[in-house]
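Worked example 3 (structure in, sequence out).
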């Protein structure tokens, strides 16, 4: 029984393969995601190289501890079982029995941690120093110790080489970064650039230098060894996340899962630009959409450069140090907020997974600004003609794309609409155009999400009732359904036109109740501006005209050209889904 127990312990100790599989699983799962998040955060703080160096050392330390754990286990098994085969009178087993003043080593179980640490100490000293506090007392122990010492010499030399290589790489990278920043500092000093402006420039350059270098496609020549099928699979996984950032392509993918695959393998073109090259200038006839894969691009709106840049430089020359500091801080804040505000009147730095000139896929597009590469960049280009060629083989998607392009061209005729080459600078949401599609197409778009709602309802009566009500509302044209690209949850998309009426004396018009025709009473509600849901086939301006005709038929109301769009997301208790209201 004791022999069986020892065999079981040996099997548990030798299950190194299972441990390695667990480590591989963790590296490819949540642990890898956490490590990547930590590294990205460290890069944002300028500590990317330091964190990578520390992580590399940590891996080596863990590997050393694991090997010495195995060495400790093997040493203890050798002590327990080699005594009966000893060719000499002494053995480690007898030494330990004498030290513990016992005749049965199995009775020393209370000292398990002590003897584990003794074995660990023996393993470390034998592996790295070649000596041990317990000298071999027979031939078997001598062979075991010699083998362990030889392994320690080989492992130690490899370890020293690995640490030296890591240290050299870290020092070279640090020296190169310091040299480049020192060169910039000397350039600014020799040309008498004001201290505050120079500090602003150095800080911005430092952030770009600290960015992690992305491995380019051209740097991986081993990709040429893949078969055409394997390369197609790789391109689909590489390009798919970027293609799905386009609203219509994402909706089309839910209807036809082959479309994205064909676009990724046959329509996407990979191009590169060196640092400082211009991608396009204003009024360029653009026939393709561009997505940043690696690197950084500075985009400058057309309206900003002729007036604002020169006035800004003249202001900076005449400012005091205190005012200049505040001006630069405000300028940085404006540059980071321009995209969120949708104004598009300040330059902005664009990074990976950002699309430019997306509307060129659906209409004749002319660029509205300058785009210049800050670093060497890799871009994905999707040409309109290639998109049309592939979509033509998918009739349902082609019909949706045709109606979408028609609605977009009508929508772009608005005089109050601010145009930009960047989606977030545009003065409207892409989902607004979906609302302008015919009801038949909106119902078709909603089918996938509607099926998900019915599947989630299962046999629950209340949820089934909510699903049926939601299906009726979709059929009536009051809303349509979409899938959230991040969470995968169903979104009830409701487009609303709100009218902010202000009288000459400053009073505003609010809706405080609704007429219940059945009971002939007014039901109070939270004060809100008059509004209506956009119906299928309607553009926002058409819905606004309908609201004025239905709610204020006898009043002469003048509508200003200022139109803004906003959105909010909140759960809907009536339909048991999340509703996104675009107003």
């Amino acid at each position: 029984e004791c022999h069986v127990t020892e065999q079981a312990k040996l099997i548990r100790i030798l299950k190194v393969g299972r441990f390695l599989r667990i480590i591989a699983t963790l590296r490819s799962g949540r642990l890898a995601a956490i490590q990547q998040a930590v590294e990205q955060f460290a890069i944002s703080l300028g500590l990317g190289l330091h964190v990578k160096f520390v992580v590399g050392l940590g891996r080596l330390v863990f590997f050393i501890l694991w090997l010495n754990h195995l060495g400790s286990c093997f040493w203890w098994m050798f002590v327990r079982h080699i005594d009966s085969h000893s060719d000499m009178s002494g053995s480690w087993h007898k030494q330990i029995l004498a030290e513990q003043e016992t005749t049965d080593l199995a009775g020393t179980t209370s000292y398990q941690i002590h003897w584990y640490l003794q074995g660990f100490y023996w393993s470390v000293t034998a592996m790295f120093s070649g000596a041990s506090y317990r000298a071999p007392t027979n031939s078997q122990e001598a062979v075991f110790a010699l083998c362990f010492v030889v392994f320690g010499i080989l492992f130690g030399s490899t370890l020293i080489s690995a640490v030296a290589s890591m240290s050299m790489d870290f020092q070279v990278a640090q020296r190169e970064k310091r040299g480049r920043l020192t060169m910039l500092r000397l350039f600014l000093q020799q040309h008498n650039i004001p201290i505050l402006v120079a500090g602003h420039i150095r800080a911005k350059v430092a952030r770009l230098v600290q960015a992690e270098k992305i491995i380019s496609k051209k740097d991986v020549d081993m990709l040429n060894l893949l078969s055409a099928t394997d390369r197609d699979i790789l391109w689909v996984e590489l390009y798919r996340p970027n293609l799905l950032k386009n609203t219509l392509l994402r909706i089309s993918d839910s209807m036809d899962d082959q479309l994205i695959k064909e676009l990724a393998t046959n329509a996407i073109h990979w191009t590169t630009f060196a640092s400082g090259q211009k991608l396009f200038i204003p009024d360029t006839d653009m026939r393709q959409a561009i997505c940043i894969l690696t690197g950084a691009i500075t985009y400058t709106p057309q309206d900003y450069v002729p007036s604002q840049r020169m006035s800004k430089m003249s202001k900076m020359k005449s400012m005091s140090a205190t005012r200049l500091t505040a001006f630069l801080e405000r300028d940085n804040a404006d540059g980071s907020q321009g995209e969120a505000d949708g104004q598009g009147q300040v330059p902005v730095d664009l990074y990976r997974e950002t699309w430019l000139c997306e509307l060129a896929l659906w209409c004749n597009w002319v660029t509205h600004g300058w785009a210049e590469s800050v670093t060497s960049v890799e871009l994905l280009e999707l040409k309109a003609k290639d998109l049309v060629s592939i979509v033509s083989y998918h009739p349902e998607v082609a019909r949706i794309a045709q109606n979408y392009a028609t609605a977009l061209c009508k929508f772009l005729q608005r005089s109050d609409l601010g145009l930009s080459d960047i989606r977030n600078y545009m003065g409207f949401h892409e989902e607004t155009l979906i609302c302008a599609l015919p009801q038949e197409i909106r119902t078709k778009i909603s089918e996938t999400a509607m099926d998900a709602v019915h599947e989630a309802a299962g046999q629950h009566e209340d949820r089934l009732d909510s699903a049926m009500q939601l299906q009726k509302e979709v059929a009536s044209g009051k809303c349509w359904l979409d899938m959230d690209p991040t969470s995968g949850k169903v979104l009830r998309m409701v487009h609303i036109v709100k009218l902010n009426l202000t009288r000459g004396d400053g009073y505003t018009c609010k809706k405080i109740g609704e007429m219940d025709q059945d009971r002939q009473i007014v039901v109070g509600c939270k004060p809100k501006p008059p509004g209506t849901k956009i119906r299928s086939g309607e553009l926002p301006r058409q819905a606004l005209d309908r609201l004025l005709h239905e709610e204020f038929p006898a009043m002469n109301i003048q509508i200003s050209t200022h139109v803004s769009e906003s959105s909010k997301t909140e759960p809907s208790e009536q339909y048991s889904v999340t509703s996104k209201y675009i107003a």
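Notes: DSSP finds 19 helices and 17 strands in the chain. Residues 1-8, 305-325, 327-343 have pLDDT under 50 and may be disordered.
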